[in-house]
Design goal:
2 domains, Neutral endopeptidase, domain 2, globular, Collagenase (Catalytic Domain), binds zinc ion, four-stranded mixed β-sheet, 642 residues, alpha+beta, three-stranded mixed β-sheet
């Protein structure tokens, strides 16, 4: 804490300013706090598991132990990877070079989808928006090497600069792939022009948050009429997706793809597809590729000063590709059952606090309250790890080739995802791996999910006082619950259907309340001229605001049963808010803040601390803040949604 700062003036600095001053962001990181440090510590634990497993060489073939240790060993074999250079790409490039007509182009695009190269569009499984007990195939817009359409089209200086840097990056990558300088420059121009045309048909980040904007379903034969130059039946046959209808996120984008299929010369397509492969494969190739990829995506765009050590990149790749194989070992060793029990109890208390809040709302009619409570009753909390693990027995991992292992992991992930399409939804599946230090809400399944990786200090500690647990993980639980009732979540009903359950007058009152939050964040600047996009961060900010309120209510209830003592002069109420400030208030590099303000629905850390607390009377009361303090929004501007 930095006690030289007044809690009522700047709670972000007060709660953890001294920690940030004493713990600068490590060179390889973009953000840093005790919470991020804990996330990195999970990777140390995974490393311990992998190194111990690698001591033995007699694991049964295709056992989880053989797979995770050979994957790790092949990734750590830097010499062999560097010696191979760009060679692992040769078979894929040969296929692209052989594209000679529309049929071979389409076939190659389909093959690239098998390898996670989703370009210019992709396909995935998803519960049906209107019947979420069924899984449908979903076609989504993709194909851009920069984060979103604005990077290609906006005229502000930072986007113009990013375009120049991106073009340099394209040239360097093509040179690494063996192109001469002139050929690389030409290829870069081709790719950049192609992606710019695609970008024009992409929805922007705010439009993408509107569920209705991406809610389109077509009979395959209708889609065939819309995009006559892509043979959908053949695509479905080749990918093994057996459906007669497809959800299409962005139909206008698919029309743009249709146009490219007709108007763009095959030679340009070949160049573009090669870039897409290079871009996806770079982190798994030799050092030169890894470094150039880092220079643009991590160093330039996010401000990282150096690459993470090789072992950590290997752990991250393995978590990504064989996540539940490795995660199973992780929870056996590092996730105590008592943590799960305590967490389940807290979730129950938070859900009950949300119920009290809904019943007590003065702006909502009983009819809508009834619906909101019905939705609350169907929430499905998941804690720690899946009850049923994925079966990796078909995955063939060898010690010999890292790139082949990566492809094998990718193929497994794609096949596993596609296998769900056309079936009833499997509620046992998880969207994050167990060691992940994060949490999520899925509106279609109405589930809140907390992997084992986040259930440790500073978020959660079985031995900590209630104030600290409710102030940190309690607010996270409250945040995920509130997502079920944010500007997006509130459009999904108790069964997870995209279906309006609001009376018109209640919806109007809700929207007036959310407009207050939009306005609050529009006025939060990260530097002169760059402020939050209130509509982009609305859902997360409703989550933080509602989360802090209901976690505080649940904490007060817990206090009645086990009154907490004052510690180091801080009342239990103060401890609660300090825990939140310390959990959320990380240091963030300016480049990463710019990226976040542009495309991340989460506000930056400072405003995630200041924003919700300055709306909460309980906070002002806990610290005795005067009504005109910076941390207290004037009554007329105070936001409260839930
Ligand atoms: Zn969230």
């Amino acid at each position: 804490m930095d006690k030289s700062v007044d809690a009522c003036t700047n709670f972000y600095d007060y709660a953890n300013g001294a920690w940030r001053a004493a713990n600068p962001i490590p060179a390889s990181m973009e953000r840093w706090s005790r919470r991020w440090a804990a996330g990195e510590q999970n990777k140390d634990q995974l490393k311990t598991i992998l190194e111990e497993t690698s001591q033995r060489h007699d694991w049964a073939a295709n056992s989880v132990e053989q797979q995770i240790s050979d994957f790790y060993g092949s990734c750590m074999d830097e010499k062999r990877i560097n010696a191979a250079g760009a060679k692992p790409l040769a078979p894929i490039f040969a296929e692209i070079d052989a594209i000679h007509d529309s049929a071979s182009l389409q076939k190659t695009i389909t093959h690239l989808h098998d390898l996670n190269v989703f370009t210019p569009f992709g396909s995935t499984s998803s519960p049906d928006n209107h019947n979420p007990t069924d899984v449908v195939g979903r076609i989504f817009a993709s194909g851009l090497g920069m984060p979103d359409r604005d990077y290609y089209l906006k005229t502000e200086k930072r986007f113009v600069e990013a375009r120049a840097k991106y073009r340099e990056h394209l040239v360097k990558m093509f040179q690494l792939a063996g192109y001469s300088k002139d050929a690389a420059k030409k290829a870069s121009d081709t790719v950049f022009a192609f992606e710019t045309r695609l970008a024009k048909s992409h929805l922007d980040n705010v439009q993408l948050r509107d569920p209705a904007a991406t809610d389109h379903k077509y009979m395959v034969k209708t889609l065939q009429v819309m995009t006559p130059h892509f043979n959908w039946n053949q695509y479905l046959q080749r990918t093994g997706i057996n459906v007669t209808e497809l959800a299409v996120d962005q139909p206008l984008f698919m029309e743009a793809v249709e146009h490219e299929l007709v108007a763009t010369p095959l030679s340009d397509w070949r160049t573009y597809l090669k870039w897409s492969v290079l871009n996806t494969a770079a982190p798994f190739l030799s050092d030169k590729f890894v470094k150039q990829d880092f220079e643009f995506y991590q160093a330039y765009l996010r401000g990282a000063k150096e690459m993470k050590p090789r072992w950590k990149r290997c752990v991250e790749a393995e978590d990504n590709l064989l996540g539940e194989a490795l995660g199973r070992k992780y929870v056996e060793r590092y996730f105590p059952p008592e943590a799960k029990a305590r967490m389940q109890e807290m979730v129950k208390n938070l859900l009950s606090a949300m119920g009290d809040t809904i019943r007590g709302l003065d702006w909502m009619t009983p009819a809508t309250k009834q619906r909101a409570l019905e939705k609350l009753a169907t929430f499905n909390p998941k804690v720690g790890y899946p009850d049923k693990w994925k079966d990796y027995s078909s995955v063939h991992i060898t010690p010999d080739s890292y790139f082949a292992n990566v492809l094998e992991g990718i193929r497994y992930g794609i096949a596993d995802d596609r296998s769900q399409i056309g079936k009833p939804v499997d509620r046992g599946r998880w969207g994050m791996t167990p060691p992940t230090s994060d949490a999520y809400y899925n509106p279609l399944l109405n589930e809140i999910v907390f992997p084992a990786g986040i259930l440790q200090p500073p978020a959660f500690d079985v031995n900590a006082v209630d104030a600290v647990n409710y102030g940190a993980i309690g607010v996270v639980i409250g945040h995920e619950i509130s997502h079920g009732f944010d500007d997006q979540g509130a459009q999904y009903d108790a069964q997870g259907r995209l279906n309006n359950w609001w009376t018109p007058e209640d919806l109007k009152a809700f929207q007036a309340r959310t407009a207050c939050v939009v306005d609050q964040f529009e006025n939060y600047f990260i530097e002169p001229g760059i402020h939050h996009n209130g509509k982009l961060v609305l859902g997360e900010s409703i989550g933080d605001l509602g989360g802090a309120k209901i976690a505080h209510l649940a904490f007060q209830k817990a206090q009645q049963q086990h009154p907490a003592p004052t510690l180091d002069g801080f009342t239990p109420e103060q401890q609660f808010f300090i825990a939140w400030g310390q959990f959320r208030g990380d240091a963030t590099r300016p480049e990463t803040m710019r990226m976040m303000v542009q495309g991340d629905p989460h506000p930056i850390a400072k405003y995630r601390v200041i924003g919700p607390l300055s709306n909460l009377p309980a906070f002002a009361q806990a610290f005795g803040c005067a009504a005109d303090s910076a941390m207290v929004r004037p009554a007329a501007k105070r936001c409260e949604v839930w």
